[in-house]
Amino acid sequence: MIVLDKVNKWYGDYHALVDVSERVHKNEVVVVCGPSGSGKSTLIRTINRLEEIDGGRIEVDGRDIHAKGADVNLLRAGIGFVFQHFNLFPHLSVLENCTLAPVQLKRATLPDARAHAMALLEQVGLAHKRDAYPNELSGGQQQRVAIARALAMRPPIMLFDEPTSALDPEMVGEVLQVMRSLAQQGMTMVCVTHEMGFAREVSDRVWFMSEGKILEQASPQEFFNHPQHPRARQFLADRSRN
Ligand SMILES: Nc1ncnc2c1ncn2[C@@H]1O[C@H](COP(=O)(O)OP(=O)(O)OP(=O)(O)O)[C@@H](O)[C@H]1O
Ligand SMILES: [Mg+2]
Asked: Rounded CA gap, 29 and 188, in Å?
């Protein structure tokens, strides 16, 4: 579903992604972890072309994401992306947030878009908030709306960049629960997260990044029980101490 082939990225003279080659299969859940500044966000942002690359190739669902002349807006609209800071449209209701893109970009009819959005809001437990505005919701609720909004475009894959790290601790669980149920439904997902419990329980593969490279990729059992690379061992030891 996603093919990364010798992907390289520079910020000026800083080599942010170094020969990254990996694959994500359909229905697979990959958790990307690693120290701050290791390139996790950069990597995931290249997959929907929020960042350009300087070498290599990225394919999503058979399409060359960085092809010259590609319609970037259309590409992005087809890949669900949820950020750390939920960026809902503040002047639109919850329901309108979820119907805007399908109507404008996919030319869905408003009744169809509404029906689908309501089903998704039901799924994230927020159907009763359809007429609320983002500033009337808790952080966890806003993040769940952000997930529903991304799903409204029926994307074949969902990317998450630390979707819970800006939330108060008591709201982390409700967002992880929505992600867990998406995974159970077979959504293909790449999640940058520091939630190692989620990684252990839900992921199929863990990618460990350090200094722009994927140093280790393993099943969660292998990764957490027998990390191979010294930096992966150090990373896990640091986390278990906190
Ligand atoms: N727009 C940019 N311009 C220059 N350097 C950048 C830019 N974005 C990121 N970097 C650098 O690239 C490296 C990787 O950054 P990135 O945000 O991908 O790390 P990360 O693994 O997501 O870290 P964190 O866990 O803190 O979110 C860092 O050294 C960062 O300073
Ligand atoms: Mg990041």
From this structure: 6
Q: Which two tokens stand for residue 151?
A: 């799903």
Please, which residues have CB within 8 angstroms of residue 27's CB and are 6 or more apart in sequence? 186, 187, 188
Q: Which amino acid is at 68?
A: K
Q: What is the mean pLDDT of residues 58-87?
A: 88
Q: Tell me: pLDDT of 146 over 80.
A: yes
Supply the pLDDT for residue 73.
82
Adjacency order of strands within the sheet including 205-210: 79-82, 157-161, 188-192, 29-33, 205-210, 213-218
Q: Is residue 38 lining ligand 1, measured as CB closer than 6 Å?
A: yes
Helix axes 139-151, 110-123, angle to 10 degrees: 130
Nearest atom of ligand 1 to the alpha carbon of 38: 21
- End-to-end distance of the chain based on CA atoms, in angstroms? 35
Whether this model's pTM surpasses 0.90: yes
91 burial type by CB count under 10 A (0-12 exposed, 13-18 middle, 19+ buried): exposed
